[in-house]
Amino acid sequence: MKKPAGKLWHFMGGLHLPDHKDVSTRTPIQQLGIPGRLVIPLQQHIGEPAEVLVRAGDRVSKGQIIARASGYYSASIHASTSGTVVDTIEQPIAHPSGLSAPCIIIKPDGDDRWGKLPPQQDYKKLTPSTLRSLIREAGIVGLGGAGFPTFIKLNPGARHEIDTLILNGAECEPYISCDDMLMRERAEDVIQGLIIMRHALQAKRCLIGIEENKQEAYDAMRLATHALGVADVEVIMIPILYPTGGEKQLIRILTGLEVPHDGLPIDVSVAVHNVATAAAVYDAVEKSQPLISRVVTVTGDGVHGQGNASVLIGTPIQELIEQFGGYTDKAQRLIIGGPMMGFTVSSDQIPVTKTTNCILVASPQETSPPDTHYPCIRCGDCMDVCPVSLLPQQLYWYARARDFDKLQNYHLFDCIECGCCAYVCPSQIPLVQYYRFAKTAIWEQERSRSKSSLARQRFEFREDRLEQEKRERAERMRKKKAALNKPKAGSDANEDPKKAAIKAALERVKKKQATRGVEKTNVDNLTPDQQGKIQQINERRATTQVPAQNGQTDQADKPGT
Amino acid sequence: MLTAILAISLLALVFGVILGLSSRYFHVESDPIVNKIDTLLPQTQCGQCTYPGCRPYAEAMANGEADINQCPPGGQATIDALAELLGVDPKPLNAENGVEEQPMVAIIDEQVCIGCTLCIQACPVDAILGAAKQMHTVIAEECTGCKLCIPPCPVECIDMIPVRQDIEHWKWPYPEATPEALQTDASLTPEAQT
C-alpha cells in the first residue's frame, strides 16, 4: 500500500538547536577566483588513496586526471585548474590529527583552460554499469561529509533492488548552509542529477527531504520538479530536528524503515545521496566535467563576511577567509564542518577538499564549553537525546576505564558522533571525545592483534623451516656417509664382478693363445703349388718384418739420443 | 536401615558412572594455558625476556619458571593482562629485561649494506629480504622491531626508527580530565557504580 502523502515518522532522541544559518544565506554563492597555489590531497575520500599520474614540471589542463583511483574503494582526482605541477609532497590536510598526507601541488597559470573532455552521451541510452563507471571516472564522492565513493552507492548489486532513492537536503547541523544555497541556485541541476542516479539505480521512487528552515530551497526544488516535468519526484518538508540529516535518521523519517544496526540502507532497499552529490553527477554526465569544485560555507563570528562560495578543490582555507574579509578580533578556533560534528584544525594553510562543507571561524562564545568538566550525575539526559538509542552514560564509564570489550557490547560503533549527548550534558563532559578515543583505540588494538598474529605465524613458520633444514642436512650427511662406507662393508659383493671380469679376460686370452697352437684346419690336402705360395709368403713376411721392426726401433731411438 | 544404605549406595554408584562417562564423552577441549599466555604476548620475538621467542617465554611462565614482568615490548599493559589471566598481582616491568619503548622498525642503509645475509639469519620473523652479495631490505609491515638484526651487522648499516605516525593509524587522545574532576571521579569506576 502506498503511504498517504505527507505522512512522516520519527526517530528517537534528537535536539532543537539554534541554527545560525541566516547570516550565511543572505548573499548568493560567490565564485572564488583561482588561488596562487593549489594543494590537492590524494585521499579526499573513504578508501585507498589515489595513485599519482603526474610528475613535477608537467603541464596540466583543467579537469585533467592527475591521480587515478587505486582499487575499488577509491576515487580519481582531477586538476582544478590549468597550470604546472610543482611536486607531490606531504602537506597538512583537513584531519583532526593535524598530520600531513601526500598532496599534489599545482601552480595555476591563470588561463583556467579546460582539457579535452570525454564526449557527451545520452545517459538514458547507457546501461547502469556504464553510467556508474562514468561517475567513477569523474571522481565523485559523497559531498555531505563522509566522502564515500558515489559509484559504489549507485550499485545495488545482484542481491538487492533499490526501491527508494532519497536525496538528502536536510542539512541539519547549525551554521552550515552550502546545500541550502545550492538547492536555491541550482535546483534543476540537482533534480536532473537525481534522475540520472535513479537511472543508475533503477529505483522505483525518489524522495527529497528538506528541513523546514529552508523554505526558499524547498520552493526552488518544487518549481524545478514541475519545470522538468518529473512530478513523481516528491519534495518533502521535514521538521527541524538535529540530526535529521543522518542517513539512517532521514530514512526513518521519510519511509518509517529502520536500518539494522549493523546494516546499510541497501538492506532496506533504500539509497541516500546528498544534494550536492546529485549536482556533481549532473555535471559529470551532462557536461562531462569531473568534480573539481564544491560549495563551501564560511561562517562564524570570527570572520568579517559570511556566506557561501564555489571553491576549487585544493584552495587553501586562508584564501577563502580572505575572500570573505579576513578574520575578526573574535576569531578563536578554526573548525572544519559544523559545531557539532566538525573538528578543530590548527592551520589555515590546509586545503579545501571534496568533503569540506563548512569552515567555521568560531569566537569564544561559539566554541564548545571550557575544558573543565564535572562528575557525571547520572541524570540520563544524554540517553534521552541519543538518536541511535544508545546508553551514552555507560559508554562514558567504560571508555573512561578503557574497557573495550564492554564498549562493544554496548554498541559503541553504532554511535554516529552527532554530539547531542555532550551538548545536553549538565556536567559538560566531552562525551564524544571519549567515544572517538575509544573507537580509534579499539581499531589500534585490532591492528596490533593482527600484526602480532602475523608475527607469530611467521616466527612459527621460520622455526619449522629451520627444523626442516636441519633434518634435511642431517639426512644428506647420513646419505653421503653411507655412500662412503659402502665399499668397505660390502667388499665381497663389490670386488667379485671386477675379479670375474679380469678372470674372463684372462680366459679369453688363454683361449686365443690356445687356438693359435691348434692345427690349422684349412691347410690339409693342399696342392704343392699352394704350399709353395704359402712358403713364399711366410719367407717374405719374415724378411719384411725384421727390417721394419729395426727401422721402427731406430726411428724411435733417434729422438732419445 | 540396610535398604536405605543400599539404595543410597546404588544411587551414588549410578550417578558416579553417569558423571564419569559424561566427563569422558562430553569432554570440552580447553585452550592450554600456554596458548592463552602466548596470545597476550606482543610476538616481537626479541628475546629480551631471556627466552628465545614469545612462545618459549609463555611456556616458561606456564611452568612457573618465568615471572610475568619480563616483556619490555608488551609493557605494563601486557603485564596487567597476564596478571589477570594468571590470577597474580601485577608488578612493574623488570628493569633487567629492558625498558618500555615506543614501537620501532628496522631500516637498512642500502648504500652501506654489503649483502652478508647475517641479518637475514638473525631475523626471527623473516622480515628481511635479500641474498648473498645482494642488497638487503626490511619489509616494514612485518618487522616487529626486535633489534636482533643490529648486532650481527658487520658494517652497522641497520638503524631502528620509530614507526611513522600517519593519518590512517592516528588515535584520538584520551580526553584530559581536570584535576578536580579526577579527584571526585576516582570512586566512580564502573565497578563502583554497579
CATH topology of the domain at 104-165 in chain B: Alpha-Beta Plaits
- pLDDT under 50 segments of chain A (min length 5)? 548-561
Largest pleated sheet of chain B: 2 strands, antiparallel
The shape of chain A, in one word, is elongated
- The largest sheet of chain B has its strands arranged as 1-4
Task: Determine the fraction of residues in helical runs of chain B and give it as a percent range.
Answer: 25-40%
Quaternary state of this entry equals heterodimer
Structural class call of chain B reads mainly alpha
Greatest chain-chain interface?
Answer: A-B, 44 and 36 residues
Mean pLDDT of chain A: 88
A few lines on this structure:
The complex is a heterodimer of chains A (561) and B (194). Chain A is α/β, with parallel strands linked by helices.
How does this structure look, described?
The complex is a heterodimer of chains A (561) and B (194). Chain A is an alpha/beta fold and 561 residues long. Helices cover 40% and strands 15% of the residues of chain A. In chain A, helix 3 runs parallel beside helix 5 and helix 10 (392-400) packs across helix 13. Chain A is elongated. Chain B is mostly helical. Chain B has a two-stranded antiparallel ribbon with strand order 1-4. In chain B, strands 2-3 form a two-stranded antiparallel sheet. The two termini of chain B are 52 Å apart. The interface between A and B is large, with 44 and 36 residues.
